[in-house]
Structure formats: C-alpha cells, structure tokens
Here is the input.
Amino acid sequence: MRQIAIIGSGPAGYYTAEAAQKLFGADVAIDIIDRLPVPYGLIRFGVAPDHQSIKAVSRRYEKVALSDNVRFVGNVSVGEHVSIEELLGLYDAVVLATGAPHDRTLDIDGADLPGVFGSAAFVGWYNGHPDFAGIDPVLDGTDVVVVGNGNVALDVARILAKTLDELGESDIVRHAYDALETAATERVTLLGRRGPHQIAMTPKELGELGRLERACPRVDPADLPEEEADALLEPGMRKSVTLLREFAAIPESHRADKCIEIDFDFFASPVRIVGDGKVEGVVVERTELDADMRSRGTGETYTIPASMVVTCIGYQTPPIDGVPYEHGRGRFANEDGRIMPHLYCVGWAKRGPTGTIGTNRPDGYAVVDLIAEDIGEGQGRKGRVGLDALLEARGVDVVSFRDWQKIEQAEIGNAREGSPREKFVVIEDMIAARGA
Ligand code: NAP
Here is the structure.
C-alpha cells in the first residue's frame, strides 16, 4: 500500500489527492493534513465571498474527501505537532500543498504604520480566517489606497465598494458585514506602478467594477496608450484594456448618483507612507516604462490622502525549517515539483502565487506521476497508523472530515438570510461545533 501525506487542504492538495486516487486506485492511503480544523484553504479564505460560483468547486473536493482511502487530518500543525522529518519517515511521499498565505512585503518607510494591512490580513479578515479575524481595519476614513493592479486588488476594492444588499448572498463574515455597514469609504485608489497594458486584472473581475450599485470606476484617458497598440495584446488583456477604455469614457453625469469612486492611478509607485501615529497618506512617485516595460521613477512625487492602505502585491509560501527555499520567488526550491527524495510540492508552494484555481489541477496530476515513478508500489511504510500513534501520544485533538461536516452544518444553520453560511472565525468555536 502506498502511503501519501499531503500538507494543505486547498485546491492544490485536493487535486493531488484526486490524481493519486485515479492513478493508484485502492492501492493508496492519502492523508490530507491541515493546521486548521476546516478544509479548502484558498477556497474558503482567499476567494472573494461574493464569488460563490468559484467556491462551488469545493463540492468536487468533497467527493475526493469522502472516499475510503482519503482522510482529512485537521487541526494538526506540521512543525508543531509533527515534523517534516517524522512525516518523511512514515510516508512514501510527502507533498507540500501549503499555498502562499503570507504577503509579499512593501519595503518602504511607513509600511509598518497602524492602518496599513497586507491583503492576506485584509482578505483573511472579511473571509473569517482565524489568524486575521481580530484585525481592526480602519473603515471610518474616506480614502482607502490599494497598492497593486492584480485581481486581489480588484477583490479588495469591490468588497469595500459594495452595498450590504450586494453582499447579501455572499458568505462575508458577520464582523466584516457589520463593519462595512458603517464604513465611511468615499474613494478607493488603485495604485499601479505601471500602465493599463501591464495590469494583472482579468476581464470578468474588472468588468464587475463597472456594474456596482453605488460605486463607479475612474480612469484618466491620458493614461491610456494609443488604441491601435491594443491589437498587440493577447485576447484576455485586450478585453481588460477595452474595459479600462470604457471606464475612461463614463460621463460625469453618470457619477452623480454614485458615492464611491474607484480611481485607477497608473504610473504611480508608492515611495513612503506617512502619518502621525497612523496612516494619513501615501507619497507616490510618477513612473514611466523603460524599454523592458519595467517601471522607473521620474522624480515627480505627490501625496494621496489615505485613512487605510491595503497592499495587494502578491504572496509567498512560508518557509519550513530544513526544506530548501527560493527566497526571491517566495516558494520551495524544486525541480518540477521534486524537492528532495520523498518530498514534493504543488500549486503556489511550487510555482509561486500565480494562476487560477484550475491551474492547480494539472500541477496535482503531474506531481502524482512523479511520485509513481519514484516510489513504485510503496515501501511498506507505516503511514497513517504511525501518524495516528504519534499524534495520540502528543495529545493532539485531530478533526476528521466527518467532524468538518458537522461544523459545516452548524455554519449553514447560523447563516443570515440569503447567505450560504456564517463561518466560525475562532478555532475553538470550530472544534466545539463538531459536538460530542
Ligand atoms: P498579482 O496578479 O501578481 O498582482 C500583483 C500586483 O502588485 C501587480 O500589479 C504588481 O505590479 C503589483 N506590485 C508588486 N510589487 C509591487 C510594489 N512593490 N509596488 C507596487 N506594486 C507592486 O497578484 P495578486 O493580485 O495577489 O493575485 C495572485 C494570483 O491570484 C493571480 O494569479 C490572480 O489572478 C489570482 N486571483 C484570481 C482571482 C480570480 O480569478 N477571481 C481573484 C484573486 C486572485 P507589477 O506587474 O508591476 O509587478
């Protein structure tokens, strides 16, 4: 029997389990270990709460989770309750599917002022991640600056801009829903250090900004390149840039009944965050593009008022002691998913934080092919029996998939009207909800 441990129960973890099941049939035992008592990682804590159709992919993972040879081993922290070395001694293959939950940091003066949040923290707050449920975003000010021109920046701007009515069918957690009800936001500035042709925003997500009840996007026509240049873009980007052109053409009369403006500030790189004890503004340097399409400062600066700053500039995988790591790229050092004998990585932990949920599927299947090559029929390791003995000896309170299903039922039962669930945001509450 092949014994495989997957660390992380997000999309990369479940696609890997699905692939292993398909390839090895009944001749594999797969343990999906997660430090939280609830599964699905990025689907639960990263995907925007108003994007329920994307979250529906968890039903596919549930099918995998419910099969006989797959276990969810929740509430078990690798590095605390069990080490990588121990797992490597117990399993034929250990797969790191730990995602990239940490923010890339914005290394400028003032980035540590109160009122500056990374997207992991801010998104984690409105998605009810236990690590971030207690942060206290500054929502009583009028001006929010969002750094970055990717899809996460769009998520953050949209959630800040939506009315409670628009969030009604989302699973945004209660504390965020309540806080947004009284938020004073009037302007969300999206800072892009490059131009409209260099955005990392996809058309579906960008298009949503044009259909908000009380908010309206603003693009300065002067920032747009000549229209003929759009022909050189790949089709997705061309659609996104076409949307920016539409935003630039929105007449002032249309803005009159909108109380929030989402302002695209292109060619604008943050150089300093200023404020007396808390963030009050962002000093920005005008940029231009060099021949390689990188941004370079022009020396011209200006200050944008800011009551809160959210940096959405990408993520990184947290390093694990003893596991080779590529610091520049924020991921494990690996060759096509192989890190060292018996140790593999998939998804963002392998590639860095790019691509959609679906990109993780081929990743999972590819790593399982490597595992099949490397471990053959398996080497008679103890696998899950050994893990259970170890965790029991250490008094770890393991949460199973059946337990999760009870937690999920409780969350569904607690949902406000119209919403699919009210998530527990405290680990102890999650564990308590599984009952006796
Ligand atoms: P991203 O797509 O890599 O975008 C990061 C943005 O931050 C870029 O605009 C980048 O500009 C900018 N940036 C980086 N360092 C900066 C700095 N020091 N100063 C100013 N700007 C800086 O990352 P993301 O938005 O976190 O998204 C991560 C992945 O998740 C992406 O693949 C994204 O498509 C995906 N995602 C998808 C969805 C969806 O499909 N609905 C939703 C959310 C996220 P440069 O280009 O100049 O580096």
Residues 106, 147-153, 155, 192-194, 198, 200, 202, 205, 269, 312-315, 353-356 surround NAP (CB under 6 Å). The chain has 16 helices and 19 strands. The two ends are 33 Å apart (CA to CA). Residues 105-311 form a domain with the FAD/NAD(P)-binding domain fold (CATH 3.50.50.60).
